[in-house]
Amino acid sequence: MVGRKTVCLRQLADGRRKDTVRFNRFFRNPRVTVDALLEGWGAQAREACVDRHVLAIQDSSDINFRTTPEQRRGLGEIGKGVGRGLVLHAMLAVDAETKGCLGLVSGRIWTRKGRRTTPHGKRPLSDKESERWFSTAEAAKGVLAKAATVTVVADRESDIYAEWARVPEPGFHLLTRARRDRRTAGGGHLSTASLTPAGTAEIELAARSGRPARIARLTARFGRVSLKRPDNVLEKDLPKAVEVSLVEVSEPDPPLGATPILWRLLTTHEIADAAMAWRIVEWYRARWTIEQLFRTLKKQGLQLEDSQLTTADGLIKLTAIATRAACTTLQLVQARDGVSGQLAGIVFTPEEIHTLKALVPRLEGATAKQKNPHPPDTLAWAAWIIAKLGGWDGYASSTPPGPITFRNGLEYFKAIAYGHTIRDV
To answer: Which residue from 118, 138, 242, 313 has the highest number of Cβ atoms inside 10 Å of its Cβ?
Structure first.
């Protein structure tokens, strides 16, 4: 999938019917379980995260597959009920310092079986889809046990009181944008908390639906708050209050016609000064990495939603495998600047690394500017080779290679690597 940039089984089988049949048998095999595929997600991150401060970023995305009223493919409703598909919830490990992707940690994939008749507010957390934020964070504790520090980062949907009360541990923190203006112990709200000014900073905002990319001048304040347990929580064993840190980020002078930024970031980290407050903002902004993962998985990459598999069970398994392939592609794109310092072995097999080494003399030029500038056996070193195969000229002054260049280079490389394995036949 990484090499071909597709999940189409016929293309992966190179048009060979027997291989297409094998792929379909694999997805229909009851011994190939989704749980085992998801457990395999964490194998790479488990070792890559040792002794690092890891941002464990989690989010959900709807996977919309084409269906007809006659052929629903066993898929349930997604979004506002106008489409059919799967819900993918993933957690991605990112280095807090370099922002390099370290691999997938954990997650869930499911299709809805129908609409619930019991109102959302009358169901316990264990019987709600929102339980995924809690269980995925708990699963991360085992996968990331060797990390120096873990900060689970998520957006507003994960702002659940039970998560604040039960998940944090020494060295295992939460960082979430508040869903609403929460009530605080003592009768106030987040908006009325007494906070310390942290100054201003200019931050580049990525483009999103309804908002073009722009530079925003933001103001921050920080302090400690005590979150009051909501009255409608069914889990009455939770503490009546939980103390956390709050960083409020606002945009006093937005551009004409733009919606001003207002983030209330809640975290279990202690914030002693303005520098730490802005560090919290930086960690929250790293959440964009998982949006890039979803884009790589869909239209801008593997085109998962175009799959023709006919059953929900097969599509769930395909999504589990494709998400891992999308993560590998994302790592390769990120590695091009050499900042992460990751080894090529997290993406390529030993045989493929041997092939990469054989290609270097053919791809390097005579001048220093045309040499591979990265240490051998690193992911950046491998990415330079793949980018060259994909048509990049190798000059630092040129536009950096993007996903399309890497797709072309990987497809070319996979053919070379196969040929290299049979060079003595």
So the answer is: 242
